[in-house]
Amino acid sequence: MRVVYDDIGCMMTLPGNYYKQLRKMGIKAVPFSRLRGQANNEFNNRSHRKITVIDGKVGYTGGVNIADEYINRIQKFGHWKDVGLRLQGEAVNELTRLFLIDYGLNDKHADDDFADYFRYEQCEQDGYCIPFGDGPKPVYDRQVSKSVILNMLNQAKRYVYITTPYLIIDSELIEALENAAIRGIDVRIITPHIPDKKLVFLMTRSHYNRLMTAGVKIYEYESGFVHAKTYISDDETAMVGTVNMDYRSLVHHFENGVWIYKHSVIGDIKNDFLYTQEKSIQFELGMLKENLFQRFIRAMAKVFSPLF
Predict the structure, then answer these.
(1) Please, are residues 125 and 34 in contact by the beta-carbon 8 Å criterion?
(2) Distance from the Cα of residue 225 to its chain's centroid
(3) Average pLDDT, the chain
(4) Distances, alpha carbon 183 to alpha carbons 61, 176, 209, in Å
(5) What is the pLDDT of residue 202?
(6) Is 263 a catalytic residue?
(7) Out of 186, 234, 270, 272, which one is annotated catalytic?
(8) Is 6 a catalytic residue?
(9) Of the listed 48, 81, 252, 253, which one is catalytic?
(10) Of 84, 201, 225, 292, which has the fewest Cβ atoms less than 10 A away?
C-alpha cells in the first residue's frame, strides 16, 4: 500500500511526522512537496490530486478528499456536495502512472519501472474516458485543464453546465463564458451558497453581474457547499476531476481529471447537475446589493485574485 498526501494542505490536520507513523504500520507513505520552510514556490505548487487505485484494476477520482465532511459525517458548511468517477479497464493505468510519478517525485528510493503496476484488462466499450494530469510550469508545457474548458465553451452548440466551488478566473475564461452565452449557448454555473472561505466567496460573487449581463445563468447550492468539479457540454463531452475554476487549480496546483466523450456516464453527470440545480438559488441582476465598502472589498479581491 502506498499513500501520497499534500504536506501543506494537511498541515493543520496532521502531525508533521505523519508519514513516519504510516511507515511504521507498513504503509509506504510520502508527503508531497514536504514543507521545509524555504521561501519559494512550495506554498503554491501543491498537489490537489485525488487518486485511488486498487490492484491496477479499479480507479477512483473526483473531488473527494479523505475527511469526515466529504461524507457528511460532520457538517462544517452545510451539506457537502461532491462528485467522483469509478474507472475500470485501461483508463486506470493513467491514474496509476500519475500516482507513481507523484510518489517518485517525493521519494528518491521509489521504483523506476512502472510496468509491474499496469493492467490491460478489457471492459465493455462505451465511448471514451481519458484521464490526464495537469500542473505548473515547467513540469507541464501547457495548461491542459484550461484548454479542455475553453474548448468546451468555444465548440458547444447547445449547452455547457459547470459546477465549481470557486469562480476566480482570468479574462480569457470570462470572455469565453460570455461569448458562449452571447451566441445562444445555455451556460449554467453552480457554486456554493455557504462559503468555506469568505474572501474567496466574495471573489467568486464578484464575477456574477458581468456574467449574468452576458446571459450566463448563475446558481448557488442553497443547502451548503458544492465541492464538485464537473463540466458538461451537449450530452457529448464532459470533464470530471479535481480542477476548480480558479487560479490555483488552473495555474499552480498539480491536478488530474477525466475527459469523457460520447459515454453513457455523461447522462448521469448531467442528471446530477440538474438535481443539484433544483436545490439551488438562481441569481438575477440586482440581487447582489452592495454598499460602498462591499464594492471596495470586491474590487480589491479582484486585484489580488491571482494569489488565491
Answers:
(1) no
(2) 14
(3) 90
(4) 33, 11, 18
(5) 86
(6) no
(7) 234
(8) no
(9) 48
(10) 292
**Residue 270 annotated among the catalytic residues of the structure:** no
The predicted model scores a pTM of 0.92
What pLDDT digit, counting tens, does each position of 254-282 carry? 999 999 999 999 999 999 999 999 999 99
Please report the DSSP string for 145-175 in residue order: HHHHHHHHHHH-SSEEEEE-S-B---HHHHH
Q: Of 6, 50, 81, 102, which is the active-site residue? A: 50
Q: Any long-range contacts for 52-58 (C-beta under 8 Å, 24+ apart)? A: 53/92, 53/95, 53/96, 53/99, 55/119, 56/92, 56/93, 56/96, 56/117, 56/118, 56/119, 57/88, 57/92, 57/119, 57/121, 58/86, 58/87, 58/88, 58/92
Contact 165, 196 (CB under 8 A): yes
- With contact defined as beta carbons under 8 Å apart, do 161 and 296 qualify? no
Catalytic residue among 229, 252, 253, 263: 229
Q: Are 129 and 87 in contact (CB under 8 A)?
A: yes
Give, in order, the Cα–Cα distances in Å from 147 to each of 14, 51, 152, 188, 265: 35, 22, 9, 19, 22
Q: Identify the active-site residue in 81, 146, 227, 252.
A: 227
Indicate the pairing of strand 230-233 with strand 159-163: antiparallel
Could you confirm whether 229 is annotated as catalytic? Answer: yes
Asked which of 87-91, 119-123, 205-209, 225-229 is least confident by mean pLDDT, the reply is 119-123
Phi then psi dihedrals of residue 70, to 5 deg: -75, -20
Mean pLDDT, residues 161-183 taken together = 96
pLDDT the model gives residue 39: 47
Note if 289 is an active site residue.
no
Q: What is the pLDDT of residue 16?
A: 87
Q: Which residue has the cell 457537502?
A: 80
**For this structure, is 227 an active site residue?**
yes
